[in-house]
Each structure stands twice: as C-alpha cells, then as structure tokens.
Design brief:
Elements (H helix, E strand, L loop, with lengths): L6 H15 L3 E10 L2 E15 L2 E10 L6 H15 L3 E6 L4 H9 L3 E3 L1 H9 L10 H11 L8 H10 L7 H18 L7 H25 L7 H14 L3 H19 L5 H15 L2 H8 L2 H4 L2 H13 L11 H13 L4 H4 L2
Parallel strand pairs: 3-4, 4-5
Antiparallel strand pairs: 1-2, 2-3
C-alpha cells in the first residue's frame, strides 16, 4: 500500500534520493527521545566515509514552507548536532534571500536554498523507484498487526534512533537481537505473503543499520593488526561495550550476593558456572572471524548502503537473488543464530 506524502515529507524523500545518489548512507526521520519523551526528529542523517579512519555524521534540517524561518533553523540544527555529538549540520530551506546564505557562510554552516530545491525537483537525481518511509512503516504495521504482533515498526524506529546515540558494540548487539527476532518470525511465514515481504524489508534495513554501526565502531581499529581487530570484535559481540572484565565483575557480585542470602548452598559456584555457560554459548567468534577480514572490513560501508537499497526497492529481492557478498552476510547471521540457512535463504 502506497502512502500519499505531504509537501514536507515529499521534500525529505527527494533529498534522501539525492544524497544516496551522491554516495552517502542516508537515514530519514529519526526520533530523538529522552526518558520516553519525544524531543525532536532528525529529518535526514547522513553518514559519509572520507577515509578508512574517518566517518562523519551530518544532521540535515529541511524546511520547505512559505515561511521557512531559515535563520532560526541555524540555531536549532546546530544545537541539536552539538548535543547529540554529530559532526556537522546542513540547512535545506525554500528561502531564497541572500542574507540566509551569507549567515551560513559566516557561521560555517552549509545551506541548500530554494533555488537548489527548485532545480532538484526538476532533476532526475531526485527520482528513484523506491518505496517511501511512510509506505514502509504502514506496511510493517499491517503485517505485524501493529503492536499486537510484535511492533515491527517500533523496532525499526528504535533501530534508527540508535544511529544518533553513542554508536558502540552495545548498539550493534541490539541490532543482532532484533535480527534474531525477525529471522525467527520469517520461519513461520509463506514467502508469498505480504507479511513476509514486509518482514524481509525489516530484516534488510536492520542489517543495514547493524553494518553501518559496525563500520562506525571499527574505524578506530583500522590500523590494528588482523588478530587484534578479531579479538576486539569477539569481546565486543560477546560482552558489549562494558567488556569482559566488567561483565565478569558484575557476575561475581551477583553470585556473592546470592551466597550471602542463602549461605552454604553452593549457589555462588552454580551461578558463576551458569554465567560462564551463557557467555560461552554466544558464537561471537563466528562474527569476529568474518568481519575482521580486511576485504569485508573495508566494504562494510558499501554493504550497508546495499542492504538499505534492498529494503526500499519497489520489488524487493528475495535473499537467494542478492549478490554473493550480501548472501554471505545473511548466511553468517543464520550460523550465528543456529538457524538452517536453507530455511531462511529461499
């Protein structure tokens, strides 16, 4: 089901297509919440890869209105970027006054004005055979029976919000948890059902978020030797951002507390044993081995863009028709979750 867009949302989609065409990784409509309060939205978040060591996140603030109040948007966009720890901001406005461009130049903020928007609307660069964000979310809600059936839309929205948070192994592991849920949902669906199509859109976009986050994390380890990078990945996927030492310390404290409540019960040793079993059951070495390979590590940014493209294609590709590199990622995740590949890759 296709959703008719308002003028503002249509402009956001056109700009997303434009920036995608320039080679950026782009996410539209990210909600920022603080303690369950909706604070604001990021119209577009752009990731760029300048070099193996440098990634930039740019907040794109878009206002296509008769009275866009462009100067005011400078303060808002710059403030949001600073608070969220983003690297830069860009203002897109329907305003055409020269003063707006001058103000942007003076304060080192890039501006795309009304003249640019007019040209973009007429350009082929704004056109793409993709579904919109609104259509994606509408179909996800229908397929999952809104929140009753698992709230697929909500999981994707939370996934997008992680991209403006402190991207780390914790966020990567949260995506892996969401992907496991989506993979398990796919086992019970016929491949021809509309719900299955929407589910695979959710899988592709979550995989894309996982890959762009992992690429962002690993930029700091590009100069490390292969074995060092592999060890970092293994610990990160297994223990998250806190690391092994902190996690084991917390486990020891919990075990000691349990022993103090029920002394002489051997509960402490039992809990520590179960904790180790749980830790060992996480097949982090599978992911670490694959993503530490130089050829894979260096292509994460492009792979993230590919999966984003799959998710929004009008005619979504099935897993078996994806390029070999993309199928490898799906197969890897199947192995990580102990799922039969042939049941997933149809």
């Amino acid at each position: 089901m296709s959703i008719k867009l308002t003028k503002g949302y249509e402009t956001e989609e056109i700009l997303r297509n434009y920036f995608l065409g320039l080679g950026f990784y782009v996410v539209r409509g990210i909600k920022f919440k603080y303690k369950n309060f909706d604070v604001t939205d990021i119209d577009l978040l752009i990731f760029s890869k300048e070099s193996p060591l440098i990634r930039t996140r740019i907040n794109v603030d878009i206002k296509n209105k008769k009275t866009p109040q462009a100067i005011e948007r400078f303060f808002w966009a710059q403030g949001v970027s600073k608070i969220l720890g983003l690297d830069d901001c860009l203002i897109v406005t329907s305003e055409n006054r020269a003063d707006v461009l001058d103000f942007g130049l003076k304060h080192h903020i890039r501006v795309l004005d009304g003249s640019f928007l007019t040209r973009l609307y007429k350009s082929n660069k704004s056109q793409s055979v993709r579904i919109t964000e609104e259509t994606l979310f509408s179909n996800l809600d229908i397929a999952s029976n809104n929140k009753i059936g698992g709230d697929w839309k909500g999981k994707i929205e939370k996934g997008k919000s992680r991209l403006i948070d402190n991207i780390s192994f914790d966020s990567c592991n949260a995506y892996l948890k969401d992907l496991k849920y989506f993979f398990e949902c796919s086992l019970g669906l016929s491949t021809e059902l509309q719900a299955s199509i929407s589910l695979w859109r959710a899988i592709y976009i979550t995989t894309s978020h996982f890959l762009i986050s992992l690429d962002y994390v690993l930029r700091e380890y590009q100069t490390c030797e292969h074995e060092k990078r592999k060890a970092v990945l293994d610990l990160g996927f297994k223990f998250g951002n806190s690391g092994k030492d902190f996690t084991e310390k917390v486990g020891s404290i919990i075990s000691a507390l349990a022993e103090s409540v029920i002394p002489n019960s051997n509960l402490k040793n039992s809990l520590e044993c179960e904790f180790k079993k749980l830790s060992d059951s996480i097949k982090s070495e599978i992911l670490a081995e694959y993503f530490s390979r130089p050829n894979v590590n260096n292509s994460l940014f492009e792979m993230a863009k590919q999966f984003e493209s799959f998710a929004y294609q009008d005619n979504i590709p099935s897993p078996s028709t994806l390029p070999a590199s993309s199928q490898s990622v799906i197969a890897l995740l199947c192995d990580f979750y102990d799922l039969e590949r042939k049941k997933i890759i149809f």
